[in-house]
Input
Amino acid sequence: MIFRYLFLLLLISAFSSFGKSLVKSGNPELVSKIKSTSGLVAFWDFKEEAGKARKAFGKGKFPLTEQKGTIPRIEEGPLSGCSALFRDSAFLRLPNFKTGKLNIYGKNQGVTVMAWVKWEGKTGFVGGMWNEYASGGKRQYGLFVSLPHYDGGDQVCGHISHTGKPTPPFPYSIDYSASKQTVEKGQWQFVAFTYNGEYICSYLNGDFETREPELIRNTKGFPGYPEGMTHSKNPYFYPDGMGNNGSDFTVGAVLLARGMGNYFRGQIGGLAVFDRALSAEEIGRFK
Output
């Protein structure tokens, strides 16, 4: 019995060490799958050192530059073996006039944003074109982890906006999907959302789980919603499309009324944007 126990401990330790070595060495096969998937606009693997622009593979280099400090490179990541470490001040930015093909918009236009993250908690913006303050709001599309105000706490959230402004009659934009599953802190997770011009869908680790219609918190008492809004958060029905609203493309933070905020806390080991809604089967290939 003791021999079996010791053997099990050795086996667990071996698998744990193997998993850590994969994270440190990266996954070239997965990187190849991302690069070969149709509709890819940009893929960043964050191999660059702190102080250098993070450049993409795809329809342009889309160099993301550091703002308000440096972002260290960590020798750990599930794709390239490296990742960018985000905290509470620095973020990456590409100004709107340089966004080019990343400026995805239109009534029936699709989009997919996916990332590999090791999240440390709290609301965090992963990446996209999302500005909540300038000119009343320049929201367009964005991937978040944890948006609790409208039932997205500790979950993958895909946000879409047509007007760029808050959703009437509410004070904030409510139009985001939220995964049924919760994101684990301190572990590498694959987070993604798709939008096909009609539904926003959020995925965790390659899996989509439907949420039944629910009473959305913080929606009671507004004009037209005396008892609040009942809606499914995954998929989230939003047929309005994406506006061409003039936001920068940012990674790790968004502009709020108080300044930059919703800082992502943790590591981002890869970020990809597609100009179409990938299918559930396609998302599953990146597990």
Summary: The radius of gyration is 19 Å. The domain at 23-284 is CATH 2.60.120.200 (Jelly Rolls). DSSP finds three helices and 20 strands in the chain.
